[in-house]
Amino acid sequence: MTNYYDSNWLRVEVGLRMGRLSVRYPASFLAPELARFERELSELVAAASDSATFVSLDGQLALELAADGLGQVAVKWAASPRTSAEPWEIRGNFTTDHASVRHTLAEVQRVSAQFPERGQELER
Q1: Of 40, 11, 10, 8, nearest in space to 122 by CA
Q2: Rounded to whole angstroms, what are the CA distances from 46 to 41, 42, 66?
């Protein structure tokens, strides 16, 4: 029998591009993390919430989105491969609009549909 966490790990490649800075590194996310982020993004796009957050269990990627109610969304992010061979972290922030967030939501929905959460987490 496969445990809940083992069956929900996704191996991904994180890619960041900001001006001339370009970074790529392997990471591992959990399918439930993406599902939770999808729900929060959906609520932000529908104006039912003013924020959405994605934080991977291993701390390899963190995103915090905050809508201002006027169509702008502030994004704070942190990225790190979290390995002893590459012990670096970069952080940043930028402002975008709801159209970009809708595009991001569509991408997250596409990935979540391909890799849905499997099983149920057992109560502790």
Answers
A1: 8
A2: 8, 6, 13
Tens digit of each residue's pLDDT, the chain (124 residues): 468 878 899 999 999 888 888 989 999 999 999 999 999 999 999 988 999 999 999 899 999 999 998 999 999 999 999 877 878 899 999 999 999 999 999 999 999 999 999 987 655 4
Number of domains in the chain: 1
Query: Which domain does 61 fall in, by range?
Result: 6-114
Q: Is 1 inside any structural domain?
A: no
- Confirm if 98 and 71 have CB atoms less than 8 A apart: yes
Q: Taking a C-beta distance cutoff of 8 angstroms, is the pair 88, 110 a contact?
A: no
| pLDDT on residue 123 | 53
Is residue 124 in a domain?
no
CB 78 within 8 A of CB 53: no
Choose among 31, 32, 33, 52: nearest CA to 42.
52
